[in-house]
Amino acid sequence: MDNLFADKELSRRAFLRLSACASGAAALTQVPGLSFGDASGEVAGDRISMEECLSLTPREMAERSAVVQASYEFLLAAADEITDKGLSARIKEILTNPAPTFMAEYQTNAAREGLRLKLVDAGLLKAAVTTEQLLPPLISPDQAPQPFAAASGSIYDSHHAYPGGLVIHTALNVRSSLGLCQGYYDTYGVPLDRDIVLAAQLLHDLHKPWVYQWQEDGSSLPEYQIAGTGAHHVLSLAEAIYRGLPAETVIAQASAHDNAGSPADEARLVGYIKAASIIAGKDPVDAGLLAAGGAAVIPPRMIEPFITYLGDHDWVFSVPAAKWTIGLLEVLAVADYGMKAADLKNGRFNSFRNYVFSQATMIGLYQTYVVGGPGGLRAAVLNLVDPPDKDND
Q: Can you give the pTM of this predicted structure?
């Protein structure tokens, strides 16, 4: 693959071009409906009623969000920046329709149960996990259950857990990873393969639209673990392996959750690759994913997978920020929107929080709270959704 970081001036131009593409940078620093750093809560655009808020589907919420749509366009533009145009096209195809195509191999109950038993026998899945929990509902292996841009970024009580949260999370990871690549070049003079980093980061959560399907009550499906990590990670790797993506891309993608920097960390990384290979029906050694014997990655250990690992550390802040902001929104839901304690556990609150977070993001609202206090946060939320007593004003 060509390496754009081999030429310092070209790398700077490419990095700046990518950072500004699709108006993504501007859109993500000035979120519609919320002015960061402004405690007034002043918003741009029309507020909606609580009735309308409750009527919207998660997909419709994501489609109404300028920040979500800008992030998705940013990801497509980032895929365009991959110099290997064959790989670029394949990644854009996945972002457009993140279908679990490997499920073509598991169309019968017997095949799905056989897969479950293989993973259990390999020590990569707890025996208590059922086939229904292991493989989420799916109508067709040719079509994702929902668009990439409508999916949650995590389980429902964690980071970016709102419609469109996945693309927000991925956009931040791509920017972080590119910044790390640039930093490694500027500091050490080390040119890294940007194609690997971009491809791996764009794909690292490709099956969250399948795993985190939205439910009738506005929450998302619970997630079970494979090989000691969230199922989405291993299922995403299985998809990349099944589609025959380059080994170096798959290894970097696998490294989003662990790295090869210590024997214990590498053992977990190897477990992810082994589990994904079983699901994809491939031998990880023959596929160039693991060294002979299957106990380690192939030496020498490349830097790009470590960049992918570091770039996926948005969760360090976004997980606690999510929990804090959900709690703050619960207080407002009771005080200003007439919700009872029971409502906070059902679809009424879930739809409310899904809309508010999809339009303003969890981290954006949390920063408004940091700068403007409870009053600033309250003003921002009131400018997104009218309380019920205003519905007929």
A: 0.89
